[in-house]
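Batch manifest, entry 17 of 40.
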Amino acid sequence: MIKNRFFSIKKLIPKNVKILAVSKSQDIYSIKKLYKLGQRDFGENYIQEIIKKYKNLPKDIRWHMIGRIQNNKLKYIIPFIYLIHSVQNLKQIQIINKIALKYNKIINCLLQIKISSEKSKSGITDQEAYKILENKIYQSMNNVKIIGLMGIASFQELSKIQKEFSYLHSLYNEYKKKYKHYILSMGMSRDYHIAIKYGSNIIRLGTFLFGKKSNL
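Output type: structure tokens
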């Protein structure tokens, strides 16, 4: 049951760690169940899906974009998005800043760092992240703010996952001092317990909370 899973994880994790319920492919009914238990942060992978759910669910939900960014569709989520986890280049940041300016908003974002060698896992290198953060164009923007890092670990053995999370944690600590970052989003249903050991303060849980995905 969603209720049992939700309260069991709440007891297990430190108070400073936020649960992001990954509601991709979950129906409205399942999301409402979790909402009624007090969950307010929900993450989606697809812009079309997040728009549909935003329209049909309570407006105090904090929506997180965790999937691949479609530049031409960003305009649809900027009015209500809480945090974008998956920024990977300066062009995306420029588009977010331009749209946010129209709404007089500041949009918080994370840079998605590639910590896994698996081809299916996207992200940028630490060098690319550094170039973005040091870029004068980004530094001159007033309506977008990079506040941390996100990463997705491999589907591999424990030792490899630990190395990947350890690497991202080290990079986060470096950026935390220099750029005042305060969000480290890493860890999913299969590896959240390891991510927490390496400093994650947002864990992205889908299967753990909802069980198997349902059809919309």
